[in-house]
Amino acid sequence: MYFARLTNFLLPSSSWLQSQIPFASSGLDAPHDFDWNKVTPSKHVEWQPCYGDFKCARLRVPMDWTGTSNEADKTVDLAVIKVEATVPITDPTYGGAVVLNPGGPGGSGIGQVLRGGFDVRTILSAGPETDDKDAKHFDIISFDPRGVNNTRPQLSCFPNHLEAAAHTLEEQAFGMIDTSDTSFDNLWASKRAIAEGCSKRAAEKGIGKHMSTVPVARDIVEIFERHGEWRAAEAQRLLRSMPADIPRQEKAIAVDRTAYNPGQEMVQYWGISYGTILGATLSAMFPERIRRAVLDGVADGHDYMAGGWSTNLRDTDMTFVKLAEYCYDGGKDNCAIWHEDGPAVIAQNVQDTITDLRSNPVSVPGDAKHGPALVTYNDLRRLIRDIVYMPLRKFPFTAQVLHELSQRNGTSLAAWSHSQRPATLGEPLSAQCIADGPYSASCIRPGGFDWDATSGIACSDGPGDRLDQSKEEYREYASLVTAQSYLIGASWASIQMPCTAWHARPHWRYDGNFRNKTAYPVLFAGNTFDPVTPLANAFLMAEGFEGAGVLHQDSEGHGMTASLSMCSARAIRAYFQTGTLPGKKGGLEDWDGMGALCDVDRFPFDGYDAEGDIPELPEGETDKALWEAWVSLNRGWF
Fold this sequence. Notes:
With 638 residues, the chain is α/β, with parallel strands linked by helices. It has 21 helices and 13 strands.
């Protein structure tokens, strides 16, 4: 009886509760003018409203978790963001927090939650099919890792955003490693010039020696520790405001359920791409802390920590094989490059178009908005590098571009290329930047992805042997990587180039073997043809964690949300709700552990319009909220 009263008192219909919990359906339209400098850093999480319906905090953590370096007395202020659960923390169905990481390395967790935090909350929290006794509702949290965007100190390789924008245009002009006879030499000199100065400044500031994956994993543990501390205090605050006639015993149960457990707070995590490296490191180093961990789009941790980046592209080029097949199946009305003679002819026509553009760039006359332009083979390869990540969403546009190019029309590609110019190009320096001086946080405009931090993290995680690598030795490595993928090999081959001159070495680096037994099993997930994290990696990494499961989504693209699959959405929800791994033992070929295969509900060129209305629920499905949340992530999470 009193449990019912306790729950009713905290229902969302209560005007009191409406002042405690945001109920926005999506964070996609949240304003982006929040001033992080006005948030006072604290060793405790002190949430305040931000970006409309979100909560933000700046959590102060040690720069050196080991306390054994010259930076032992320095700190890092993590920018943290939260979408609150739809129930208060005193509710029996409150399931705690889930921390997200968008990958990279260098991706912004703040941006990730702003784009999809409310949708993730819908997907992971209890739905209509969940048994009341198992129902859980989660807070969704993420953060900008060390050196990234709104976290301080920020790693910046350029004195201000104008210099960074100018450099981006310069490197685009160089092309990729194999674009011309001079492109490798230009990129080698350019990237090493940036890395040389940037890494030395970062080391002098301290952050350059403390932004490898290991301290970030420890930061996640600290976020959960401080969340547990906040949870207990917040529960006490809520319980004090409850009606006096609710028995002490009922309140005591709520206090016990929300109590802070110092040194024992459990971790719940969903990481994508590089986020799987972070999640695997977290699971290997702190196995007793893992309650839930979904590692989605799995990178080979062994290769990554060895500085290889050489096992990523085995399935990339199958993406365009599938493009031709889907195009033919979709029909003439849905695919601009359709041909009645079938996929083989479509694929050959695409190849002919790409080959022709290499030697015959297309001129595009100016219009009322943009001046005249030239579209090149390099522009098309940059587009391809982008679209292979999200084929369901982006294949139709790709087909339109290819069709136009086959007619010597570069209008769509020119428009896309223009949209890729740095957003800060031409934006004047602020008065605060001029006052604070070069390389200050006010001179760098935070964005969604931080390429400076990519080098700082990736080069720190590697063993450092690239510092001894000659230009010719790197050229040989780049040739091997380039040969792995016609589509994006040349782009991928330059990622490790800054590491040949990155002098900041990490104080704490992971050198383990990614093997351990976690408190609860880890779930690895991969697509049939992922362009940069092949499915084989999911099985490889799962072998190291006792009891781990694998979810195989039969699709293309990077990460599960690259496609629409209610099967995958239900599997992820069930795992977070109950800890149950999807499928059964031996459920996947050549895998003895728990495994499941999920089909998808939509295919490229089947009429799905990523810019149009939300498509209808698949036949036989009834959970509209789950479907719409997954579609929303497909459209805007990356």
